[in-house]
């Protein structure tokens, strides 16, 4: 096993795979893992060859949440009112949620607390049949504070109240029902399903995908009024003037491959 707590691979199709790599502790998030994830995510944002990011794990389980040993060790140095662990985890969640590139969570096994938060931060989430979830914080006398903005957006306030308060374990099918994951996949079909999604993402214009993520973020929390309608008109008018949009329309009309698709394989 590699000594690195997080692994990065980029294939020839521009798909980057980030793998949590602490299987002996169920891929719990410690300071080194979180720092490396943040570093890699920033690097991938700047890498124009990368089209999408897959977040997965080595070993049996996806992620058991924050490493409690890290949390306890930080208590000795914690200034009043400041929690370095929470700050780091909040930074990771924000960077992942707001990333320019499309993100896909590939979830197997146990996914607890902050691990489920990572799933909620990704644009797309696939879970294997053996995946199981728990917002376990209250059982430890803690609260799911840092992950709450993303989980509540994914599953809604009412369901968040239940699962945050009860810390019940629930399976992949229930995660699908409540909207935490988009699809439950048999283990043997995982790669095929992932390839289908990455191929679909690569078919879109890179800048168009980024702008689409931006407008979903804005519109999901904005009032549906005249101001928002005007903004939607302005956004599409801006995008239509871009070289990418002109290339996409030209390629469609002339029945040829768009330039951003040439040479892309999209296989993870």
Would you give an account of this structure?
This protein folds into two domains: 6-199, 2-enoyl-CoA Hydratase, Chain A, domain 1, CATH 3.90.226.10; 205-261, Lyase 2-enoyl-coa Hydratase, Chain  A, domain 2 (Orthogonal Bundle), CATH 1.10.12. It is built from eleven helices and nine strands. It is α/β, with parallel strands linked by helices and 268 residues long. A six-stranded mixed sheet has the order 1-2-3-4-6-9, with helices on both faces. A three-stranded mixed sheet has the order 5-7-8. 46% of the residues lie in helices and 15% in strands. The chain has helices at residues 31-46, 68-75, 84-97, 114-121, 148-155, 157-166, 172-178, 190-202, 206-219, 226-240, 243-253, and strands spanning 6-10, 15-20, 52-57, 103-107, 110-112, 124-128, 132-134, 169-171, 183-185.
Characteristics:
single chain; alpha/beta; 2-enoyl-CoA Hydratase, Chain A, domain 1; Lyase 2-enoyl-coa Hydratase, Chain  A, domain 2; 2 domains
- Percent of residues in helices: 40-55%
| CATH topology-level fold name of the largest domain | 2-enoyl-CoA Hydratase, Chain A, domain 1
**Which blocks of ≥5 consecutive residues have pLDDT under 50?**
none
- By secondary-structure content and strand pairing, the structural class works out as alpha/beta
How is the largest sheet built, in terms of strand order? 1-2-3-4-6-9
Give the biggest beta sheet: 6 strands, mixed
Can you count the beta strands? 9
CA-based gyration radius? 19 Å
CATH class wording of the largest domain: Alpha Beta
CATH superfamily of the largest domain: 2-enoyl-CoA Hydratase, Chain A, domain 1
Mean pLDDT value: 92
Total number of domains: 2
Q: Give the number of helices.
A: 11
Query: What string gives the helices and strands in order?
Result: EEHEHHEEHEEHHEHEHHHH
């Amino acid at each position: 096993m590699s000594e690195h707590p997080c692994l990065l691979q980029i294939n020839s199709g521009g798909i980057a795979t980030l793998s949590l790599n602490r299987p002996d502790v169920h891929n719990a998030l410690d300071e080194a893992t979180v720092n490396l994830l943040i570093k890699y995510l920033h690097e991938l944002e700047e890498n124009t060859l990368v089209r999408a990011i897959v977040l997965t794990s080595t070993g049996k389980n996806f992620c058991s949440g924050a490493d409690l040993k890290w949390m306890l060790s930080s208590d000795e140095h914690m200034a009043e009112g400041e929690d370095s662990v929470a700050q780091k985890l909040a930074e990771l969640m924000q960077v992942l949620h707001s990333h320019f590139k499309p993100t896909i969570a590939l979830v197997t096994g146990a996914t607890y607390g902050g691990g489920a938060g990572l799933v909620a931060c990704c644009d797309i989430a696939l879970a294997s049949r053996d995946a199981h979830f728990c917002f376990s914080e209250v059982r430890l006398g803690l609260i799911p504070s840092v992950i709450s903005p993303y989980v509540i957006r994914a599953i809604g306030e009412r369901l968040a109240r239940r699962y945050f308060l009860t810390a019940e374990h629930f399976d992949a099918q229930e995660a699908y029902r409540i909207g935490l994951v988009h699809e439950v996949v048999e283990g043997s079909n995982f790669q095929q399903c992932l390839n289908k999604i990455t191929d679909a993402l690569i078919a879109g214009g890179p800048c168009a995908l980024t702008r689409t993520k931006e407008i979903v973020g804005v519109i999901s929390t904005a009032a549906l009024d005249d101001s928002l309608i005007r903004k939607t008109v302005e956004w599409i008018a801006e995008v239509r003037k871009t070289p990418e949009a002109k290339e996409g329309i030209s390629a469609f009309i002339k029945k040829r491959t768009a330039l951003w698709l040439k040479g892309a394989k999209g296989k993870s």
